[in-house]
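Extended Data, record Surface antigen domain-containing protein
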Amino acid sequence: MGVRHRGRLLAVTVAVLAVASAQARPLNLFNAMRDTPITRFSSADVDLMTQTVQRALDSGPDGVAVTWENPRGTSGGSVTPGKDPQDRANCRTARIENRHRSLQNAGSYLFCRSKGQPKGAWQVIELLPR
């Protein structure tokens, strides 16, 4: 895996973990992440997942899953966008489900576009209850 892709994987993982860190002790958080699909993803998996998240949040209908699959590997998943509970125009929720071989994980997140960010620059704001 190249340095650029490792950096992207780290950025995606840190963004998702940062919102959860306030809800878990550090050791529990590490143990919970150790055997999750994203820690085993290739750079192609990360690219496919990231593109799917962007596409689903940009134009996916609420409640309709957008799937991704790496044809060269054993990873895949889905992103199901939804409406922001506070009805903000620049925010959406997403249920993200990922798998790598026998590992599976899912979570729901709130994403928003920051002011001044280009269209499509979604940021994870918080981890939502299941």
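Summary. The chain is about 35% helix and 30% strand.
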